[in-house]
Specification:
N-(1-d-carboxylethyl)-l-norvaline Dehydrogenase, domain 2, 6-stranded parallel sheet, 9 strands
Length: about 325
């Protein structure tokens, strides 16, 4: 197939490589020249313009950071689109903004799918991403072969924008897991628990979760974890913060309050303020650990404080 790819970041570049290796013709465009040169080195073709890539592609993947970026890219593509072309947005953006892109593209007679990703850079590099697809199921059936080189699982989750809804739901759960793991680790460390033992018990108990197994926030316990690698980013704190902002805003429009998500967002803001926004989002554990007061200096009232002995015995 003739496949276009716009946005060659940490996710997009390895995805484009898988498409080339699968034998597709791939034409690429990106904001920075370096990734385009890297893609050309493994066999992709540089696009002259977004208009050119829009005219040429049978399926055109978009993988950019934000809602305004998707809106701008689709705006440039629309005049070049027509029947026979399908735009697939793999970004994570606001569901309502995404629904509007469906309408813009379909008004030109082309097709559109929102298809955000889960699996991080590791999944992109290994070709095992989970893809949550919103849009017409018949369109997905027609272009599914284009997903196969980089996806381990492709799931149709509903109509226009629903891929984004499901992706935001996934990420708010993952952020909540990470916050809980960070708080558990901080408490256990404060008490003097052995971290390797803690990990072993939690990973074989009801506290087991993806954040624990992939991002245990103590160096040396899991050699592949971000904490053991200077918080090297599989998914940055700033990007997770962006996704939680999207979830909080979207849920607010539905009349749903996300209290746990707001707590995670606060921890991510604290991590970013400490210069960790470009590090892996599990670095929120640094912010959580920083909340620990020196022994004996807690601001919380001591149970029974201010009562004499008789009061304590006779509440």
């Amino acid at each position: 197939m003739q496949l276009g790819f716009i946005g060659l970041g940490a996710m997009g570049l390895p995805m484009a490589r898988h498409l080339v290796e699968a034998g597709h013709e791939v034409k690429v465009a990106s904001r920075s020249p370096g990734p385009v040169e890297a893609a050309a080195a493994f066999g992709a073709t540089r696009a002259v313009s977004l208009s050119e890539i829009g005219h040429w592609s049978e399926v055109l993947f978009v993988c950019v950071p934000s809602s305004p970026d998707v809106d701008a890219v689709v705006g440039e593509l629309v005049p070049a689109l027509g029947p026979g072309t399908c735009v697939v947005d793999c970004s994570t953006i606001d569901p309502d903004v995404e629904s509007a892109q469906h309408e813009r593209v379909r008004a030109r007679g082309a097709d559109y799918l929102d298809a955000p990703l889960s699996g991080g850079t590791t999944g992109a590099q290994s070709g095992t991403l989970t893809v949550m697809v919103g849009g017409e199921p018949t369109v997905l059936d027609r272009v599914r072969v284009a997903f196969d080189p980089f996806a381990g699982r492709v799931v149709h989750v509903g109509g226009a924008g629903m891929g984004q809804v499901v992706k935001l739901a996934n990420n708010l759960v993952y952020a909540a897991q990470m916050l809980a793991v960070a708080e558990a680790v901080t408490m256990a460390q404060r008490a003097g628990a052995d971290m390797a033992t803690l990990y072993d018990v939690l990973s074989h108990s009801t506290g087991d979760c993806a954040a624990l197994r992939t991002r245990f926030p103590v160096a040396g316990v899991l050699p592949e974890s971000p904490a053991s690698n200077d918080w090297a980013a599989g998914f940055t704190a700033d990007l997770m913060a962006k996704d939680l902002d999207l979830a909080i805003a979207f849920a607010g429009r539905l009349g749903v309050e996300l209290e746990t998500t707001e707590l995670g967002r606060r921890a991510l803001a604290q991590a970013s303020a400490q210069g960790l926004g470009g590090k892996d989002f599990s670095a929120l554990a640094v912010a959580v650990a920083g909340r620990v007061a020196p022994a004996g200096t807690s601001d919380e009232p001591v149970p029974g404080a201010g009562l004499d002995d008789d009061d304590r015995r006779h509440p």
